[in-house]
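Why run this: before we spend reagent on co-expression, it is cheaper to look at a predicted model of the complex and decide which construct boundaries make sense. The entries below are exactly what would go into the expression plan.
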Amino acid sequence: MEQKTGSFEVKKGLAQMLKGGVIMDVVNADHAKIAEDAGACAVMALERVPADIRADGGVARMSDPDMIQKIIESVSIPVMAKCRIGHFVEAQILESIGVDYIDESEVLTPADEANHIYKHDFKVPFVCGCRNLGEALRRIGEGAAMIRTKGEAGTGDVVEAVRHARTVLGEIRKLQNLPVEELMTFAKEIGAPYELVVETRKLGRMPVVNFAAGGIATPADAALMMQLGVDGVFVGSGIFKSGDPSKRATAIVKATTHYQDAKILADVSRNLGEAMVGRQISSMTDAEKIATRGW
Amino acid sequence: MKIGVLALQGDFAEHQVMLKTLGADVVQVRLPEQLNGLSGLIIPGGESTTIGKLATAYGLIEPLKTFGKTQAIWGTCAGAIFLAKDAHRPQPLLGLMDIVIERNAFGRQVDSFEVDLNVTGLNADEKDQSPFHAVFIRAPLIESVGKGVEVISTLEDGRIVAARQGKLLATSFHPELTRDNRFHRYFMELAK
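The model came back. Tokens follow.
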């Protein structure tokens, strides 16, 4: 019987396998091994973690394929990599070297200020960031098979992650209470494809897996996002910018599983060493925020 | 009937939804004491290394081995790896089933696929005799099985993707990602 690859079902399916897990940013094979040993369900291969991209300034692009390849060879868990918003050639390159998921990411400098990649054309699945339900459903409309709320990457401040998760989940709750005749106007107001609005209302959740990202730095942050109702977490700079990455990574994995058990959360939060220094988002100008990238 | 889903990591919620529609009482298992009183347990898809590490950290390995001696366990994908006696890699395994597993046997995510399968015993008392639509995600293969393990489904080329050993069941694919609940009913029969 015929085997079918690259369907939306199998793209969405891998994200479902990542649920309840932690996806960690890693910049080399050694980091990737530490992340896998700590129990990461996937790693994100990139040359610089968001905190360094912020500090360095300049144009942030797709990482060197050779570096990504080395990470792919070093671990058995799925490997994700980032391309710039709208840069479909970077995406083609990442697909060709065998990454398991592409993050069309606002953390890199956008290549197109009007359009995102048409993701249905790819066999490899994509994850995209969002700040609200409209943005999430536009990305799914373009073919994203997984969503993450953006937060504010590279800050270690969870406030934007909370804002975006509450916004998305709140809009879904609101949508479920709307009568059918108001759905078209709701779709118009949030700028989302009507069919996906209808589907989201029916499911009572987004039609694809939804992780939280951007500013998660502690086990308590991870559990907070899980209790708010996301399916899992991305931790970027929070691990390898901390004093004891291995210990912190293990603790965040445990906290994501036992997110409702305060005793276990207390236990895993003990003696983790220094957390990443972080930057308070309320002290940043709008121009410094990267979550606003994406259309 | 009380059925557990191992809720350390992975798509346990999808199994839970499927079991609930079939009238089972579903319990999420993250700690050993949560195994008490269960007739069966599903180990979901996810990352087998993550599940193994968390099971080790919270003292679940021995209780799960004991549980599997008398009760039904079904592992899908990562769960099937976890049930195996050998996965060619140093990672925590339950070793309850006499099967050898090859992880990521089909390649990377771009090679993940869907296919229709014939499954022995699945349609025994069913009106629906159609093949089972199976979803394989970075899937493992059951490389070989020991005596006492029945192969219940293979790909066209003969490679093994589902096997049963008494009340223990292993599938390389994910019935919980479909709307077809025949596998879940099959498992609930084993758990009776």
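The mean pLDDT of chain B is 96. The CA atoms of residues 9 and 50 of chain B lie 7 Å apart. Bring this page to Monday's planning discussion.
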